[in-house]
Write a structure and sequence with these properties.
CATH topology: Spore Coat Polysaccharide Biosynthesis Protein SpsA, Chain A
Radius of gyration: 19 Å
Order of helices and strands: EEEHEHEHEEHEEEEHHEEHH
CATH architecture: Alpha-Beta Complex
Number of helices: 8
Distance between the termini: 9 Å
Strand order of the largest sheet: 5-4-1-6-11-8-12
CATH class: Alpha Beta
Largest sheet: 7 strands, mixed
CATH superfamily: Spore Coat Polysaccharide Biosynthesis Protein SpsA, Chain A
Shape: globular
């Protein structure tokens, strides 16, 4: 049973990037506003409604590039049954971590114990309710959604003495891969203040997460076999099956 409102968690959607891997589309669209599925709704709508279906109605959108498209479409979220606030990127400290740090400075997450951070170019049917339940029950500082197995997008050679003795086209590696979704305690975001010193760029996955691990913070894995797809490149966008997107809507829990 999905909770009506998940008061302990605020959803944070990272929707400010320029989407360079999606050019030339992103010369005209904000990357999370590209149309997907047979209904051709913006990718971001599927994310907003996924969070809502798991009771996360308080949502903060970290925006920058072409943010007008997002604001004009979603307004404050009334049409989608959510409460949206916009936090604008600061050019003095770029990157996802920089955007999160500036939002924290502005008091955007007051009243919440946890954030559910979701990258704006990922579509998934992950069970966010179970992920947050595990995060709370384990008292972890951060919980990262992981899937087992990752398909390398290129062919891989086995080389001996300069000679290719084996070749596998797009092998699937038996590793745990992050899918761009993380739950994190609000109180541990003070680590961003340390990392932000003398920086012009700060990344959540590349800087904050490794720093937390190095300092002995409790970072747990939420292992999932849920569908997920990174729509962040032109090649991936062209290969996205609209019927899969439509199916995700049909199987989504009711709010």
């Amino acid at each position: 049973m999905v909770e009506k409102h998940n008061e302990e968690a605020i959803g944070v959607i990272l929707a400010g990037g320029e989407g360079k891997r999606l050019r030339p589309l992103t010369y005209y669209f904000q990357k999370c506003m590209i149309p997907i599925g047979s209904l051709q709704k913006p990718l971001l709508e599927y994310i907003v409604t996924l969070l809502r279906s798991h009771g996360i109605v308080k949502q903060r959108l970290l925006v920058g590039y072409k943010h007008e498209q997002i604001v004009n479409y979603f307004n404050h979220g009334e049409r989608f049954g959510v409460e949206i606030e916009y936090l604008f990127d600061d050019p003095e400290l770029g990157g996802t971590g920089g955007a999160l740090y500036k939002a924290l400075e502005k008091g955007a997450f007051q009243g919440s114990k946890n954030l559910l951070i979701y990258y704006g170019d990922i579509i998934s049917d992950i069970d966010l309710s179970k992920m947050l339940q595990q995060h709370r029950a384990s008292s972890s500082d951060a919980t990262l959604a992981l899937v087992k197995g990752f398909e390398v997008p290129v062919g891989v050679a086995e080389v001996e003495g300069g000679r290719i003795v084996g070749w596998v086209e797009k092998p699937r590696l038996d590793i745990y891969a992050g899918i761009g979704i993380i739950a994190i305690k609000l109180e541990v975001l003070k680590d961003l203040e340390v990392l932000a010193e003398d920086r012009k760029q700060l990344d959540i996955m590349g800087d904050l997460l490794p720093y937390m691990i190095s300092k002995g913070r409790r970072v747990e894995a939420y292992l999932t076999d849920a569908f997920w797809y990174d729509v962040g490149s032109t090649e991936k966008y062209e290969k996205l099956d609209n019927s899969i997107v439509d199916c995700l809507l049909r199987t989504r829990p009711s709010k």
